[in-house]
Amino acid sequence: MNLKDRIKALVELSKVLNKDNEELKANVLQSKLHNQWFTEENSWKMIEAIKTQFLAEDILEKWTAKYTIKDGNKIQKVGLVLAGNVPLVGWHDIMCCFVAGHTSLIKLSDKDKFLTPFFIKTLSEIDSRTSQYFEFIERLKDFDAVIATGSNNTSKYFEQYFGKYPHIIRANRNGVAVLTGNETDEEIKALGADIFEYFGLGCRNVSMCLVPRDLDWERYLNIWHEGYKLYAQHNKYKNNFDHNVSLFILNKTKYMISGSLIVKEDASIASRISSMHYQYYDSQEQLRAYLQENKDLIQCVVSSDEIKDIGTFRFGHAQQPKINDYADGVDTMEFLSNL
To answer: In 71, 87, 216, 244, which residue has its Cα 20 to 30 A from 133's Cα atom?
Structure first.
């Protein structure tokens, strides 16, 4: 298959990613039954994002035009160790390998093992030639390069195992929000989506807010409570919420609370499920210095204002990455096209 054929197959895939597709509906339901974090709403949200942001023909053509993808080069075998924190989180890596013309050796997360195989199966039904580009494996061997995503602990092992091969290895990162205190009610509600969507489990979810010292926390918490209180009705989320409240009480930790979110001052960017940390800033210089110093821990920054020398997303857009918003700021397609 040449690049044009591969793009065409992806465009055709997008046409069947609809709620009237009974087989897809069955896989969405199966994902929910297997992993309660993967609600049907969240799976469909991710499917729609992939369909509109990754698989539109004009987006694919404009994106690939930036790279030198030479058809006829030796097909490389790229091991993909996928995360399982949100539905279909590894699809972007799989798609990049396919577009670059390489074979993906896919090590699925046990938490997310239904929707990705459905996508691959559907591609093979659209064009049987796509089958040569995908292989599901239990153990990585006989590979030429690796893209592995995991926790801070597993990333250390990945470095040991795969360090001698061309590789991209990703560890934990989180989203950070910058508040001024002048946000509108609509902006505050939109920020709530960055905090709550996918139950806060995504690497792009906001887990830390940088705030001025006079922030009216009551206003923010009330708006988030009204907009996202239904999250507290989800069994696993509520269990984490109750556990964390109990833990903070026992440890005499100072915190603020709404019906579905715990907020506390903490220097750690990563926070527990159902909680969010905050830190104060006193000047724009201090703010920029913090973001620069912690850039290796931050996946994205959301803000209502532009911040000098810092790329930002608008509130409500942390979980809406474009096709070229690469995880950890590492250009996956450039890596793959140069193998």
So the answer is: 87
